[in-house]
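Shipment paperwork, digital attachment
Item: protein structure file
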Amino acid sequence: MSKVKDNAGAECPPKVKAIYQAVFELFEEGTDLNSLTVSEITKKAGIGKGTAYEYFSDKEEMIARAIFYNVEMFCQKICKGIDREKDLPDKVNYVLCAMEQQIPNTNCLFRLVHIISGNAVTSRRFREVVEQQRLFGEKPVESVAKQVLKDVFNEKKTLSQEKKNYLLMSVYSKVLSYGMFLSENQYGSAEQKDAMRSLICRGICKEVDEIEDL
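Attachment content:
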């Protein structure tokens, strides 16, 4: 039974953090997480294999929790940055720029999405762990979408819950889609990224402006 019960925003033992960091670094180096072994993780983390099992039940739990931790920490940093931006276009642009500048974290985000949606046996085990971890709070990307739209919702107090949910889905899906293209190197030049960011910002703003008339 796992001893790791805290969420990513809470304090956790240094050895657990070392495992989280080791998994992230191995992922960043291009290691196939499906074939990754506990020995590889603990060697990278600089701890004993037996020590790892004091905190985690199995390899899948180590990897799933590590990915969730790194994604949530990344999203928490983005949420803090969003607060410093004045208007909606700047908030959206900030999120997309942060994803461009932190490609390893963006790729980690898509690994989490893949784990949740996968059908393989290992994916099912990963998904079990991630679902358990999510009991501590909402999905990390959902928190980003809510932070982007926080001022909008404060201003549009009469907006129905269905329309709020629609806008949240719109921001959520556009952020994920942009990250997917980044992870697949679809935007080879800065000009292409600038153009796509501009389109996404304008699209979201247009939906916000027109939401009450839908």
